[in-house]
Amino acid sequence: MQQPTVVAVIDDLFFQAKVRTALQHLGLAVDLVSNGGRLQDRLQGGDAPALVIVDLTLHSDDATSLIRNLRAAEHGRSVPILAFGSHVAVEVQKQALQAGASQVVAKSAFAKRLPQLVRQFVPGGAEGDAAPAPPEEGRDEAC
Question: What is the pLDDT of residues 3-21, one digit of tens each?
């Protein structure tokens, strides 16, 4: 059986390493891309991922536009999008939800609860855990 793939759009090298390690520990394949152009190339070149993770503090792109463009593309309409960003950037979080993010969490909550957050959208993997229901309205209580 093929591992589910998670594509993460993160341009912070430290956080890329942290996310890669956590997702691989969950038994998931990981594709890290640093900008929206690479995300589009990745999505057009193969099977849809089980989840896309987007850092709302990208230096290389406007993350909200990236989410909007992903939702507008045929290959991105049904892919769940988990976004994370600064807990004080409430307006950016709202914009990400309006653009089509499935859920938005504060970066601190994302770092602390990454396995549980991913399991909401990608059940199974190496551990075979059942996924809990995502929070209402797409926002995590830590935002």
Answer: 899 999 999 999 999 999 9
66 closest CA partner among 92, 90, 48, 31 = 92
| Cα separation values, 109 from 51, 58, 70, 113, 135, Å | 18, 18, 24, 6, 14
pTM, full prediction: 0.84
Domains of the chain: 5-131 (3.40.50.2300)
Distances (CA, A) of 107 to 27, 43, 84, 85, 128: 22, 25, 5, 5, 26
